[in-house]
Amino acid sequence: MNPTAPRETPEGSACTIHAGESCLTCAWRADAEWGVLSDEDLRRLDAARSFNAYRPGQVVYTQGHPALGVFCIESGEVLLRRTDEHGTAAVTALVPAGRALGYRALLGGVPYEETAEAASEARLCFIDRAMVRELLDKDCRLGHRFFRRVAEDLTASEQARIDMATLGVRQRFAHFLLTLKDRRGRVDADGSILLDLPLARQDIASLLGARPETVTRTVRALEEDGIATFDGRTVRIPDLDALLDELEERSGEPRHQR
Amino acid sequence: MNPTAPRETPEGSACTIHAGESCLTCAWRADAEWGVLSDEDLRRLDAARSFNAYRPGQVVYTQGHPALGVFCIESGEVLLRRTDEHGTAAVTALVPAGRALGYRALLGGVPYEETAEAASEARLCFIDRAMVRELLDKDCRLGHRFFRRVAEDLTASEQARIDMATLGVRQRFAHFLLTLKDRRGRVDADGSILLDLPLARQDIASLLGARPETVTRTVRALEEDGIATFDGRTVRIPDLDALLDELEERSGEPRHQR
DNA sequence: CGGGGGTTTGAGTCCGTTCAAAATACGTGG
DNA sequence: CCACGTATTTTGAACGGACTCAAACCCCCG
Fold this sequence. Notes:
2 copies of one chain form a homodimer.
Chain A: H1 39-48, E1 50-54, E2 59-61, E3 69-75, E4 78-83, E5 89-95, E6 100-101, H2 103-108, E7 115-118, E8 122-128, H3 129-138, H4 140-166, H5 169-184, E9 186-187, E10 193-196, H6 201-208, H7 212-224, E11 229-231, E12 234-237, H8 240-248
Helix pairs in contact in A: 3-4, 5-8, 6-7
Chain A binds a DNA duplex through residues 168-169, 200-202, 210-214, 216-217, 220, 232, 252.
């Protein structure tokens, strides 16, 4: 269950930079859980946190290890990978910048439930468990915010389960592209949308609950239908409406009752 | 989104019984979230709560309605049914006795995310939102307990997603039977295990992420292989090991990395 | 006794998988 | 900077599990 021993500090040898943004001026302050804290508490948070840069693929924390603290994604995206008791591994989420990581394990008092690794170049803050606990005790609202976040995650996970049962791979992939578009989509000179896939094909497949071969074929099919063109990890979407139409066509859907 | 107007009291016309178990002597006290409360608080909880009986299929609360409070399942089981924005309905969980219901919406400050209906004959407690809030404010540990519960639910939901992608219907069904066995399994005179299915075939299918026809065929296949026999809603499992073996055979499993 | 929903059964189809091999991308050391 | 070995991605062909559709069946209830 616990292949390697726990460590004292965040894993990997990412260099610690003390020059990171202040929590008070953080771009994500409004959305982040910490946003409920007073300026004074934020300053204490500021002083206590450390700041690290990660290269793509670098592990942030490992499933099964005791939770050392909470991470915040300042920039980049982080992949969550879970291995169950049968040894089956799957990507469970691609977490966007601005969100916290590892709070579930820390607040729940359990080891990390998944391995987190940087999907792209990423910069993360790390807040030690002692500081988190302290802030949590001081201001109950912080706990509420984290509760809300988990509740949202749960809703999202249940929706993913429904989609898995209801939608085909093509539709799930289209949905994934739209999510990416909202996060990191750019508009090209000719008006078409550009975005980069932050994941290897394999990991996209795992996230979608499909095999890599199927993803490849789906990509080709979308290209042949003029929905999108793929060049390496860059995707071009000439007509957003065409992609949106993909989601509507729910082929064989269970009759919704009442 | 909100088909009917919210109501003042728990839905349906279940008769309120004041003679229910006291929270202090509740069989689930040790497991339940309220277990962290002091005897004094438990007495206040006792006084404030109401107690209702539900017939199978009766709605406890409805998706989209504002959260009025938290329910506790004293006996019986409750089905959670979720309808997404496309109108696709799916059973998301079968909640066993001893667990709370509706806390996610209430604590998260959002409307109920799903419709809850009694799967079997059930007896539930209802705790008004005002009382929940009061206890929550007074004792932070209660909030922690609920956080833990949602975190566990999330882990379970993610596992279900993985199972959906990895396992066949037959294995998912076998897994479902084993869950039921742990909850409500009895041992017959001849040593075989007996249990009742608390759900209609349709709902089992939905919970498993399959069609009713497929469930029927799976049932037949299990009977032909001597794993279990089905008589209406009663299931007989002559050899538990044979059923357990079903779970091991993960046919085409994604190579687990590292 | 005649609905009516739920369940079962059958036949045919399709989507996604499996397996195997070729092609491409990638990182590393020379 | 190029050559090489490895990992990933792509392609092809064949298979199979679960789905669709449609009809028959059943049981419960009025």
